[in-house]
Amino acid sequence: MIAALNELIFQWLEDYREQALLLIPLIAFSEACVGIGLIVSGFILVAVASVLVTAEIATVAQILPVAFLGALLGDHVGFYFGRWLGPRFHQLRLAKRYQRSILQAENMIRKRGAWAILIGRFIPAIRSMVPAMLGISGFERTRYSMVDASACLLWAAGLGLIVTGTTSIF
Predict the structure, then answer these.
(1) What is the Cα–Cα distance from 89 to 98, expressed in whole angstroms?
(2) Which helix (H) or strand (E) element contains residue 72?
(3) Rounded to two decimals, what is the model's pTM?
(4) Looking at residue 169, what DSSP letter applies?
């Protein structure tokens, strides 16, 4: 499935060079968004960004701001989905089965939520779930937005380093 998705993306890049930069925020959003992020790999973003730079379709300076915005929006969709779901989450059968573990996780998130945001942004397996968990736990909105913006900024800088490194190889 991932190979087919990669092929589709690269074919689209070839056919629509002028709009190719639009893929960056879309992919960054997808890999950060709750649910979708479990399917969309961060590797796709790195590969597409590297191809755009190598093919001189876009520069790293053009890619990073739109990747930042896509990631930030994806995180916030997850956070506000968690806020919306909130107390109803605890009524789900799965949540009732693991109630003790969930309460422990929520307590830890309340105490160390900022670190969860920062660290979670760099771990693909949990990247899309951390914002929703913070939303469910009732993490304060303004604090979330400030810490998440910082985490996305650091993540975008890391993306820039990776893309610069991969394009210098080719």
Answers:
(1) 12
(2) helix 60-89
(3) 0.84
(4) H
